[in-house]
Each structure stands twice: as structure tokens, then as C-alpha cells.
Amino acid sequence: MNPARARSGHVSDNGRMTSPDVQDTAGAPEPPAAGAAGAAVLRPRLPSPLLEAGDERFARHGVRLLLKRDDLIHPELVGNKWRKLTPNLEAAAGRTVVTFGGAYSNHLRATAAAGRLLGIPTLGVVRGQELAERPLNPSLARCAADGMRLRFVDRRTYRAKAEPETLAGILRAVDAEDAYVVPEGGSNSPAVRGCQELGRELGDAADVVAVACGTGGTLAGLAAGLAPGRRALGIPVLKGGFLDADVLALQRAAFGARRGLWSLDDRFHFGGYARTTPELDAFAEDFEDRHGLPVERLYVAKMLYGLVALAEEGAFPHGTTVAAVITAAPLP
Ligand SMILES: Cc1ncc(COP(=O)(O)O)c(C=O)c1O
Questions:
Q1: Cα(15)–Cα(220) distance, rounded to whole angstroms?
Q2: By the 8 A CB rule, do 146 and 115 touch?
Q3: Residue 22 pLDDT > 90, yes or no?
Q4: Structural domain that includes position 207
Q5: Same domain, 256 and 319
């Protein structure tokens, strides 16, 4: 990436089953007493900036490309993490927040950071009991340093975590029966409503707004917030083709019905979650050089690749303005 070669111009800037596997964090920093209602004290950059990106692969089809820089919202609660987590931490109203993830989960890291920043106790349920015997990897070490208590569970229990009895067992074992539970990936109704704000910020600035999808919560909210007639386009980074039903279920839970115009294009997962190819890496490096934008590889690169491919296929009529939501920055 070479920021000096940036060609973007500014448009707007208004933007625990048995106890030995519980790893209580010793020596973690004392969280501030601010409480979740004070998310604003963290000074998020909201609305996030919307930048024009001159890109001939779009321009030659008469298409304008904008970058919605959600990666700039907050240095620690980046992108959709801010939008999904802060409404949940507020809903927790001071209770311990329990959530779930794999050993390298960005969602766990973000929840731990949010807990530290907002003075909310957090507990992460981690897939893989065998990990309890090993030194923490850097991602989990970061969670622990942020004050998150870690609970390692076997894979069967982890898979069944959404079943009421299993969940109750997990919470009982960690003495957190009155905890506030956020699902894996952070997509629930408060999160979807938080992402609705992303759509509202964009309003009618773009005809089509593209976002990378994992659980679909960000897309569900985005589509609901856009101005009438504007379309949200989800690019799933997982293989499977199951996301239509999930996005619809998330919208029904959050809003009572389907909301807004949205669709999915399943062609750009590059083999599935966390998979990449030399072609995708080369694409991302080139995009960084063209636009001075650090491109996160697991989500953002796939979404941008999909958008360029669609532009080159002529999928966007002449005169279309397309916005790409930059939901993350690469890890340092
Ligand atoms: C950087 C990034 N972009 C997009 C997404 C997709 O979000 P969702 O799970 O709401 O579809 C995620 C998942 O958390 C993410 O980390």
C-alpha cells in the first residue's frame, strides 16, 4: 500500500462445564466505571467518512465508486464491530456480557476491548477444550489482557450452545446465570438495528451498497436503513448459500418483517471462511496501491473483488453509484 498514491477524494465526513478450564484473567486492567450508556465518550467518528474512489474499472462502465470508511469509526471498535456491539453493551445494562468464538475470533477480541473501554465485565466462551492446556495465542491473550474471562468448551458443547439447556449449563458453570448473552458473530436484533444506522448514514448517496457477509447481520441492518429504492448487496465470505434465510430471519426478529432491497452474490467466497488465493492477494495489494486503502483480507478483499468483477461484467447500468462498506482494517 502506498498512501502517497491515494486517489480518493473526500465527499463527506459527517461519519465455564467443569472448573479447571475457566481461565480467569489475573492482572487485567481495572475497567473504567463509565458503563455502556457512555459509548459516546469513546468519540466514535460517526457518521463514518464517505470517500470518492477514482477507479477506471468502474469509470469505463460509467459507474462511480464510493468507499464508506467504517474502518475509521474507532481505533479499537472498528467497522461493524462498533455498530453491532455498542447497542448490545448498552442493552446489557452493566451485566456481564457473555459471547462465543473460535481461538482467533475478531468478535471475541472486539467484545473484550469494548468491555474494557466501557467498564463492562466480559466472558468469552471459546471453541476447543484442548486450548485450555496451551498458552494463549496472541488473539486470546489480547482478550485476557482486556479483562475478558475465558471459558474453553469442547466442540460438541460449543455446537449446541444455542440450545437453551446447553446455554444454561454454560452460564451456570461460570456463575453468570444473569449474564447478557451475545451470539457468536454478534448478530442479534440490537446489532441489526445498530447496523441500520449505517444504511441511514448512506441514505440515497449510492444506488447499490456492497458489504461482506459472515452471519448476515450487517447486511440485514444496512438494507433496512437505506433510502427507498436503494439496494444492499451482500458478498458472503463463507460457502454454503444459507444466508438468504438467515438475513430474512434477522430482519424479522429486528423489525417484524423483511426490510429494504437486498440480494446476495455467492460467487466470491474463495473457498470459504479465511481461505484466500494468490489471485485474491494480488487483487488486494493492487487495490491498496490504487487507493491507499489498507485492505483486510478475510472480508473486505472478497467484497471489493466481487464489486470489481460485477462492474467488469457490466452488472451496473451506466450512471450507477456504488458504495463499498469498508468494515475492517487489517490487523497490525
Ligand atoms: C470485517 C468484517 N466485515 C464483515 C463482517 C460480516 O458481518 P456479519 O457477520 O454481520 O455478516 C464481519 C463479521 O463479523 C467482519 O469481521
A1: 20
A2: yes
A3: no
A4: 10-15+44-79+188-325
A5: yes
Residue 296 CA to ligand 1 centre (angstroms): 11
- Does 105 lie in the same domain as 65? no
pLDDT at 24 over 80: no
Number of domains in the chain: 2
Long-range contacts of 133-137 (CB under 8 A, 24+ apart): 136/23, 137/103, 137/104
- For ligand 1, which residues put their CB under 6 angstroms from it? 79-80, 106-107, 185, 187, 212-219, 296, 299, 327-328
One domain, residues 139 and 264:
no
130 and 209 both lie in a single domain: no
pLDDT at 29 over 90: no
**Of 215, 250, 297, which is best to mutate to test ligand 1, by the most ligand atoms within 8 angstroms of its C-beta?**
215
Maximum CA pair distance of the chain? 62
What are 59-114's pLDDT values in tens digits? 999 999 999 999 999 999 999 999 999 999 999 999 999 999 999 898 999 999 99
Q: Are residues 163 and 202 in the same domain?
A: no
Q: What is the mean pLDDT of the chain?
A: 89
β-pairing, 149-153 with 64-68? Answer: unpaired
CATH of the domain at 251: 3.40.50.1100
